Amino acid sequence: MLKKILFILIVFATNNTFSQCLTPVSLSTSNITFSNAQANWSAISGAYRYVLKYRICGTTQWSSLQTYSPDSSRNIPSLQQATCYEWTIRTFCDSTNNQIRSDWSDTISFTTATFVAAPFNPLIVNNLDTNYCGLKTSLKLYLSQAANEPDIESSILTSDKGSFDLNSMNIGDSVGYAILTTNSQTINASLRATLVFTNYAMIQANDSSGGIVGFFTIENLNPGIKVSSTSPNDGNNYTSGLTSEVYFGEYFVNPDYSCVLNFYTELESELNDLKNDTTSLNIICNTTGIIESVFKPKRLLKSYNILGTEAKKSTGIVINIYSDGSVEKTVKTKY
User: Fold this and answer.
1) Does residue 103 sit in the same domain as residue 128?
2) Beta strand ranges found along 112-232 (DSSP E)
3) How far is the C-alpha of 40 from the C-alpha of 243, rounded, in Å?
C-alpha cells in the first residue's frame, strides 16, 4: 500500500511539474530567406527560457537554439536554400534544475527561399580632399555592394601620378580610419602603421576593442601609388550588402603640375569575378582654377544606400555623389 501511495505521489509531482509550465502556442514562421527564418510564438507567463529545436523535414537529427523571456521569437540561422525545415519549442520555467518545463509544442514546417545571386558590380568612388597641385591631401576610398553579390577577396588601387609621403610616417602612427556598414552592424576601425620603409608601408585596421579587422599595404610605384588589401573568406562567398569607407590622412601628395590624375581600381571576388574602375580627377595649379572650383555650385548626381542601389526613396545611411567629385555620407530619416 505504501509503495502504491508513493507511486501516486511521484506521478502527481511529475504531472504537476509540467502543468506549472505551459507549452508555447500560436506558432508561426516569418522573414524566410534562403539562409534564415524567424520562429515566433506567444509568450508564456512565468517562462524563464525557451528551447527551440529544428531539422530538415524527414530527417532525425535535431539542432537546438535557446532564447530567454520575454523574447517570443528566435532567428534560425545557417539554413540550406530551397529546403523544407520543421521546428518545435518548449518552455522552461525555472532557472536552476530545469525540472519545471512544458511538453514540446506542435511541429511547424517552412521552406527556405531559392538563392539568386546578384552580379558582381561594386560601386567605387575614389576622391581627394583637395585637388590643388603639390599639396599633401587625404585619400578617400568608397565602395558599396548590393545584397547577394559575391564577396570581395582582394582589391588593388593604383594611380598614374602622385605619391605617398612615407618619410613623415612612423611605426605606430595613426594614419586614418575605416568604416564598414552592413545591414546588421557598423564597424569603426582605426588605421595604424605597423611597418614603414622608404617606399612601402603596412597598415593595420583595429576595431574599437583592439581586434584586428584587416590589413592594407601602401607603396610608391614611381610614378603613382598602390594600395592593396585582402579580405579573409567567411565561408559563404556572398555579402548581405555593405558600404566600406577608408580614409588615409594627409599622406598622399598631388602632382606638382596641372594634369588629370587617374586612379585605377581592380577588384576580384571570392568566385573569381573581376571588376575594374577608373576615377579621373583634375589637378589644378592656377589661382583662377582654384576660385572657380571653390565658388562653382556643386550638383548632386546620384545617391546610393548601403546596399549599393540608387536611393531615390531610401531612409537610413545614404552616400551622395556630387558633380565636383566629392562624396558625402548622410542619414535620411524620411523622403
Assistant:
1) no
2) 123-128, 136-145, 152-159, 163-164, 174-182, 186-196, 200-207, 212-220, 225-230
3) 31
| Ramachandran area for residue 241 (φ above 0: left; ψ -120 to 50: alpha; else beta) | left
**What CATH number is attached to the domain comprising 101?**
2.60.40.10
pLDDT for 334? 54
Q: Is residue 261 part of a domain?
A: yes
Question: What amino acid occupies position 291?
Answer: I
Give pTM, 2 decimals: 0.65
C-alpha atoms less than 13 angstroms from C-alpha of 202 in its C-beta half-sphere: 6
Mean pLDDT of 192-202: 96
Indicate if the pLDDT at residue 100 is higher than 60: yes
What value does the mean pLDDT take over residues 182-196?
A: 92
Task: Name the residue range of residue 258's domain.
Answer: 123-296
The backbone torsions φ and ψ at residue 2, rounded to the nearest 5 degrees and listed phi first, read: -65, -40
Residue-wise burial string across 72-90, b where 16 or more C-beta atoms lie within 10 A, e elsewhere: bbbebeebeeeeebbbbbb
Separation between Cα atoms, residue 158 and residue 161, nearest integer Å: 9
Q: Is residue 305 part of a domain?
A: no
Domain tally, the chain: 2
154 C-beta neighbours (distance < 10 Å), count: 13
